[in-house]
Every structure is written in C-alpha cells, then in structure tokens.
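Entry under discussion copied across for reference:
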Amino acid sequence: MRGPENDLIDGGWAGATPSMARSPRSADAGDPGTGRPKMLIMDVCGAYMRPLGGWFAIAKIVQLMNELGVDETATRSALLRMRRKGLLEAENRPGARGLRLTEQALAALEETDQRIFAPRHPAYLGDGWVLVSLSVPEDERSKRHVLRSQLSWLGFGNLGNGLWMAPRRMRGELEKTVERLGFERFVLMFDAQYAGFAELSSLVGKAWDLAELTGLYAEFVDWCGPVTRRWQDVRHPSGAQAFNDYTLVLYHWRKFPYLDPGLPRDLLPADWAGHRAAELFTDLRDRLEPGAVEYVRKVCAGG
C-alpha cells in the first residue's frame, strides 16, 4: 500500500502526502527536521500563508521553520524547489524579500483541502465499485509505474494482473487523474457490483493491506495522546506550542485521506482505528488552528 513520493516536492499539492510507510514517530515532535522539511514547509505555506494574504517574507518563513526544528539551509532549499515547480513566486515589499503563492498553488490547495478536511463517510456496499484495467506497452513501462503509483495514492487496491478496485465514489478522482496525466489510452474503467465467488472481505484483504493501515492509524492515535492532554483544559490555545502542535498534526494526518479508500463499514475490522484517528484530528484542528494562525500572524507582523 505504499504510495509514490510526494507530488509536493516533484509536482503540485494534489496528492501531496508523506509516504505511507512514515509513521508519526518518524519525525519526532521535538525535531521534525529529521523527517521531511519539504513536507513541513508545505504545511506552513498551505495552513498559514494562504489565510494570511498569500505572501510571507522569506525571513519569517525561515523563522517559523526554525521553530519546527528545520534549519535555514533546508528551508531555503525547499523554497527554491517550490519556486521551480511554480508553487511560489518572488514578490519583494518595502524592507523585505518575500514569496507569494501562485495561482497554480492556490488551485491545488483548494483541491487538496477537499480531500483532507471535508467530512468523509464510509462507502456503502450497495454503491458498488469502480474497476480499472491497465494496459501499458513495454516500451512505455515508466508510465506503468506512474499509473500504479497514482492509483495507490488515490486509495485503489490492487487485485493483480493490472486490475485495481475502489469504492465507486472514487471514479471522479480517477478520471481527473488519468486525464491530467494524458494516459487515457492505457486505462479501461468499469462500474461494477461484486457477484462472487470468494467472500468480498477476503477480496478486500487481498487488495488492501488493512493491517498496515490499522497500524499507522494506531500510531497516529498514540501520537495524538499527549497533544490532546496538553490542550484539553485550555480554553483558547495559543502561542508557539499551538503552532508547533497544529502543524505537526497536519503533517502526520494528511497521508491518511489519500491512502484510506473509505471502505464500507461491513468490510472493516470492528475496532477500526481510523474512526478514532479521524475524531482526534478533527478535535485537534478545531482546538489548535485559530491560535496557530494567530501566532503566525504575529510573527509575520513583527519586525
């Protein structure tokens, strides 16, 4: 179930999530810079630059990233990479060299928000499935890898022999992805209802590694424990700690909406950790986001 490398670094915001194999423990809250500074900087730009006018002074970005444990060299390298990808553009203002989110970045963030923040309910068995058959010539096998990676990152499960499946509601995202890549000639797509013969739960167990996903959800729940306790009695979380915690909550959460297809409840384990993880993420976002944004506003307004 491992997804492709983050499009945020090698493309746009859509699908921009850490590799599924990276657990919350991979980037300790005290030293996220040992994880993926390029990923953290995208969280900073998306979560704070956009609601605060779409422009930050470079020095302030460096300061904020330093508070997250990412050094200046890594930050400036990530910013340069984002500029080359068309996500940021230079805009200097009196007394400050700065960067602005491009229209490309804003459009991608809008799309990504729908995936990460919109309420997501499990599919129903009666809704059916979308099946995808891939046929890529050997002389274009690199495109086969791209397609497989994109399908995995959309949450499709692999049945083998170039056949993939997902709940039917994923069809729209599949169509957009294939059209964006220009790979229509390699893909056959079907609406389907499962008719047998194996148990559907057995088929799902083959297509998705639910044990791995369950483990990752459980690690996220464990990671959220001390963060939740830190703020449970605080009426209005604020300051550098709120900024740090909220940014890391985003960083650790945003892979899940891309890797979890939202299978029908009847096909999930009874104690599915994804439900608790989603509750914790929503609660921490509601608690921490206002104070985190206000803290960044003050940092960026300061001299």
Remarks:
- Residues 1-12, 14-35 have pLDDT under 50 and may be disordered.
- DSSP finds twelve helices and seven strands in the chain.
